[in-house]
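Hello everyone,

My group is preparing for a crystallization screen and wants a predicted model to guide construct design. The compound we'll soak is zinc ion. Before spending weeks at the bench, it would help to have a computed complex in hand. I've included the protein sequence and the ligand's SMILES below. Output in structure-token form would be ideal because that's what our pipeline reads.
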Amino acid sequence: MNRILLLAACALASNAFAAPEHSPRPGGIAVIDVGSLEVAAPDVAYDGKPVLLLQEHDRWKAVVGVPLDTTPGELTVAVGSDEVSIAISEHAYAEQRLTVTNQSYVTPDQAQLDRIVRERKILDSALNSFRDVPVAGIELIAPVDGRRSSSFGLRRFFNDQPRSPHKGMDIAAGTGTPIAAPLDGIVAVIGDFFFNGNTVIIDHGQGFVTMYCHLSAIGVEDGQTVSAGDAIGLVGATGRVTGPHLHFGTYLNGTAVDPAILIAD
Ligand SMILES: [Zn+2]
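Reply:
Good plan to model first. Here are the tokens for the complex, ready for your pipeline.
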């Protein structure tokens, strides 16, 4: 009897808080109960893309990244042969106006535009990849110590020209500060990109992918397995930046979600 109770307690402790907070807003994460662990997990998809599943207590939880450009209202997720609706609330993201003095970052020339298109394909491919492996949880440790801005979702204007919203969290830290992998995973991309500078992308499985930009140095190789806490590079100011910081992006089902939801306090 005692042994059974102990086993039950261990099982509970290991996955009691596996799912992130249900945050059904543009750029947030919707968490849906999709059935008992006693039954095989259903196929879950949003916008045609497979969705990450976690075990929590005795239930399967689908963890859906809600795109930043989602119109508040109903969002439909395919669960097996059913459709489940989630109410998406409104969220007003702030506006930011920046002056960028290097004109090539504001109005790139044709060669730079070609480079940007090539790089976008590499990044999109990694951010949309789905490695079908079990994922125990997606709670993260902070990749660097430093002030974490609440700039995810900022609607940005560079020299008064509208640009895509900010799809990550900027963490203030000096050049050379070590960056730690926030969770186990596999290095999916390393490289020097026009806007993002020196960049590392880590694939944590089932479409959960994290990105690190503007590094002064990359400390991992393509395809390398990393554990939570491993050094993956150093903070820098490469690419389109106004000063050294870490741009930290977190992605689910190919969509950027607010890293603040995933970082343990
Ligand atoms: Zn950023």
